[in-house]
Amino acid sequence: MVRPSPSDYITDDIAEDLRRRGIEVRDIPGAEHSVWYSHFEDFMAAIDDRY
């Protein structure tokens, strides 16, 4: 999962719970709700380490 940080929808507690369940949660500091729109390069790097 890629989320803005901070997020109004996926709180730190929810993110930590997802991580404990084995889901990788990547944070994009300062991003807006539409992470891909406000921080495109950071979003692409979060979903593809080769970018």
Give structural notes.
This protein has 51 residues and is an alpha+beta fold. It has one domain (2-47). Helix content is 41%, strand content 16%. The chain has 3 helices and 2 strands. It has a two-stranded parallel sheet with strand order 1-2. α1 links the parallel β1 (2-5) and β2 (26-29). It is flat and about 25 Å long. The two termini are 17 Å apart.
Per-chain topology:
Blueprint lengths: L1 E4 L6 H9 L5 E4 L5 H4 L1 H8 L4
Weakly predicted, low-confidence segments: none
Helix content: 40-55%
Query: What is Rg?
Result: 11 Å
The dominant shape is: flat
Largest sheet: 2 strands, parallel
Residues in β-strands, percent: 15-25%
What number is the mean pLDDT?
Answer: 89
The largest sheet has its strands arranged as 1-2
The computed structural class is: alpha+beta
Distance between the termini: 17 Å
H-E order: EHEHH
Number of helices: 3
Count of the separate structural domains:
1
How many E strands? 2
Task: Describe this structure in a few short sentences.
This protein has 51 residues and is α+β, with helices and mostly antiparallel strands.
